[in-house]
Amino acid sequence: MDRAERIAIVTAGLLMSVFFAALVYSAAGLNISLPTCVTNVAPFTAGKIIDKGNNHYEVHMVARMWAFDPPEVRLPPGADVDLYLSALDVTHGVYVEHTNVNLMAVPGAVNAARVRFDTEGEYDVICHEYCGIGHQNMMGKFVIAKGTAVPPGAQPRAQPVAAGAATAVQLGKALFETKGCVACHTVDGSPSVGPTMKGLYRHETEMEDGSRIMSDEEHIAEEIRHPGKHVVKGFPPVMPEVPFTDAEINGLVEYIKTLS
Ligand code: CUA
After folding, report:
1. Which ligand 1 atom lies nearest to the CA of residue 64?
2. What are 142-156's pLDDT values in tens digits?
């Protein structure tokens, strides 16, 4: 064997051992957990925050067009979070601002990462995998604040939204802002992926098939329940069906009615 060849092989071998040692050291010595795909966790379809005690939480997050569930995760400072991530429709990405969390959300699979939130503040959750027309507006949030308490056991997914909503309008506004509606609909009349909600109530809209429909309470509720049935002219038929309860749909309608 040529001398230069031997040097190249030995150098490559040494480099590989250095890299492997660094990997072992960061995982075992520095306790840095690497993002991973967990195969022993069944894919889930709803978000959940589970208090494991000792300021340790398990967060199940679901990505879908174009929102995260739960849309907002409130935890106390110092929280250790095991983040489990899945997707409902297409592949999304999750980057949590100011952390090392950078995962892909894949339908039918669960990816996981461990993160510790030492500093109080808001950490935006951003979708960084192109997932369709509302992609750039797909966002969630971790809010780390003193005095935040997560009830023991599983936290129902609607709770962060419904809590503090005294009226139907408040509930509707909270849902509108956290369930992905804002990714495509503005409330100030400016254009977006979908029609603006400003002035929608009692407005007559031209549909793709040429018909004209007056947006009364019944029609707005119908559009939320079955988005593909009537498509507004000039807009792509991309609105996803989100499973809302009757009370939630009523809240959304009441909220939209206030936007005239
Ligand atoms: Cu979800 Cu991009």
Report:
1. 1
2. 999 887 766 554 444
* Locus of tokens 């999304």: 92
Q: What is the pLDDT of residue 82?
A: 93
Report the largest interatomic distance among the alpha carbons of the chain, rounded to a whole angstrom: 85
Q: Which of 163, 135, 167 is nearest to 149 (CA)?
A: 163
Closest atom of ligand 1 to 132 CA is: 2
The stretches of 54-167 forming alpha helices (DSSP H) are: 159-162
Separation of alpha carbons 63 and 106, rounded Å: 9
Write out the two tokens for 251: 């809240």
Residues contacting residue 60 through CB under 8 Å, at least 6 positions apart: 44, 46, 47, 48, 49, 50, 84, 86
Q: The tokens of 37 are what?
A: 């795909």
Q: Provide the mean pLDDT of the chain.
A: 86
φ, ψ for residue 245, nearest 5 deg: -80, 170
Taking only the tens place, the pLDDT of each residue in 172-186 is 888 888 787 888 898
The alpha carbon of 29 is separated from its chain's Cα centroid by a whole number of angstroms, namely 32
Nearest CA to ligand 1 atom 1: 92
Closest CA to 99 of 72, 73, 133, 126: 126
